[in-house]
Write a structure and sequence with these properties.
Length: 336
């Protein structure tokens, strides 16, 4: 079968379309023939060795959906021919965290395509816990691409205890996590504002029900305060925007952070933190039940996952360059 593999860690150019043997499912594993997969920045970072794969060549790809085509030993409740969505999170399954549905804290927590062969292939083998029936109402493109970003967004919202009627500010709309956070926060009954450097993206967000949008590079903290401030700020930009994000927060507001695209370090003004009594909340990836709840919001059509563009499977490097350009709104997908 064909698989996109990293033969080196020199960036996107290290991807090669190889002929590889079909993987065989082991005990309590299934093999899925992929119909659609989804791209994440993770696929670029891994290609740069951040983190480096344990073995080369390595097949990346966290998100995917398709049809079960082989069963390993001891698999029950799943049949060949079942249409499934793949949950990208893997873990040991036996530690206290795993048994308490907090797999994100497991020592062996991993992501498909980072820690084991991923979805940028004709077929992928995953543990049975990682396949969920595909709702008929979801397109293959959405089913194959919402997983990692959508679940990450939902976990941020849940960890930050968002409740109906609150105001949310999503900093830097455009990427998959931000677009999902906006839609999910609206599903929770929040009023959502966004920031972007692009007027086109601000206009798109307003067309999707955002209450308003501000320039990411401007004084959006003050502008948000003029509208009463935000109870929750969704952040994955970091040093370039965090000062304004703290300013945008209401007293007692929460700032949930799942990434920092502008760098890892930020000088925190501690008096602002304590006088405004803010909460900084770290969050990363999501649990199996958060994946299932994200899927359910989509199934019920209460939240949407926007797919910006679908590329043919053979054009993965072009699709990754498009993702890297940051021009897109929502997810970038591959049709296999
Ligand atoms: Zn565990």
């Amino acid at each position: 079968m064909k698989a996109w593999q990293l033969e080196d860690t020199n960036g996107i150019d290290s991807y090669v379309l190889n002929d590889v043997p079909e993987p065989e499912p082991g005990r309590k594993e299934v093999r899925v023939k992929i119909k659609n997969s989804g791209l994440n920045h993770l696929d670029i970072w891994v290609s740069q060795g951040l983190p480096a794969p344990k073995h080369l060549p390595h097949t990346t790809g966290a998100d995917g959906a398709g049809v079960v085509d082989a069963l390993g030993e001891g698999v029950a409740g799943i049949e060949v021919g079942d249409e499934v969505v793949i949950d990208p999170s893997t873990s040991c399954g036996n530690c206290t965290y795993c048994l308490n549905d907090e797999i994100v804290y497991c020592n062996d927590f991993g992501i498909l395509g980072e820690h084991r062969a991923g979805t940028f292939a004709e077929k992928v083998v995953v543990p049975t816990i990682n396949v969920v029936p595909k709702p008929a109402s979801l397109t293959w493109e959405v089913a194959g691409s919402f997983g990692l970003a959508g679940t990450t967004a939902l976990r941020m919202i849940e960890k930050a205890r968002l409740s109906r009627g609150e105001t949310v500010l999503v900093v830097g709309i455009g990427g998959g996590v931000s677009a999902a956070a906006m839609s999910l926060a609206q599903a929770f009954g929040a009023s959502v504002y966004i920031t972007s450097r692009s007027q086109e993206k601000i206009d798109w967000a307003v067309s999707q029900g955002a209450a308003g949008g501000f320039d990411s590079l401007g004084e959006f903290g003050k502008e948000m305060s003029d509208f009463g401030g935000a109870d929750l700020i969704i952040e994955n930009v970091g040093p370039a925007t965090l000062k304004q994000s703290m300013r945008a927060a209401k007293p007692g507001g929460r700032i949930a952070i799942c990434g920092a695209t502008t760098g890892p370090r930020f000088e925190l003004n501690l008096p602002v933190l304590w006088f405004k009594q803010l909460e900084l909340i770290g969050s990363s990836m999501g649990t199996h039940s958060q994946f299932a709840r994200t899927l359910n919001w989509l199934r019920l059509d209460k939240a949407q996952s926007t797919v910006a563009k679908v590329f043919p499977f053979e054009e993965l490097p072009d699709a990754l360059r498009y993702l890297d350009s940051g021009e897109q709104i929502g997810k970038v997908a591959l049709a296999h």
